[in-house]
Amino acid sequence: MFTGIIESIGIIESMDKEGEDLKVNVNLNGKKLQDINIGDSISVNGICLTVSDIYEDLLSFDISKETLSRTSPFEISQKLNLETSLRYNGKVSGHFVTGHVDEVGFIRSIEKKDMCEVWGVEVSKKLMKFIPEKGSVALNGTSLTVNHVVENIFYINLIPHTLLSTNLSSLKIGGMVNIEIDMIARYLQNLCTK
User: Are 153 and 99 in contact (CB under 8 A)?
Assistant: First the structure.
């Protein structure tokens, strides 16, 4: 469980294909994440992954074919949003994020508006029923609020702090982002359809 408040940005230093699975080695750039051990869960671009190895400033993650089929692709030198798991005595500044990506969305517009950027993100019509105006959504693990929705595009504001503290600033129109809907919306839908 995570909060969607990004703690650090890592960079993919190397990757090794193992059949249809992937081992990804992420360089922390000298910035240590607090109290990390092998076996811990880390949100990596919004994906809950398990630390498989630690080498000084490198964290390794084993990623299954299933996870790879549901998330945006990994590339050498790619910047990744990182967040350690929520401690039950900790502060929740964002919203509850599980790290279970629902879908890959596409950035359809980026408009500079005063200090902020307003992004339009396209997802499937199936997913839109879980993304209400003023609801929560996670993009690459970053907790954000939906401004408004038009058909299957939702719009969010990115403040300067979010752009500086996450990998979202490195993305462009047409780019892909990992989308996780609000956990409460997911469970309510499941209860209502039973």
Answer: no
- Is domain 103-192 in CATH 2.40.30.20, yes or no? yes
Amino acid at site 25:
N
pTM, 2 dp: 0.89
Please write the tens of the pLDDT for every residue from 50-94.
999 998 889 999 999 999 999 999 999 999 999 998 877 666 676
CB atoms within 10 A of CB 133: 11
13 Cβ contact partners less than 8 Å away, ≥ 6 residues apart: 25, 26, 27, 58, 76
Give the pairing type, strands 41-44 and 21-27: unpaired
Predicted confidence (pLDDT) per residue in 166-191, tens digit: 999 999 999 999 999 988 777 776 67
Beta strands in 114-175 (DSSP E): 116-122, 136-139, 142-150, 153-158
8-84: CATH topology: Elongation Factor Tu (Ef-tu); domain 3 (2.40.30)
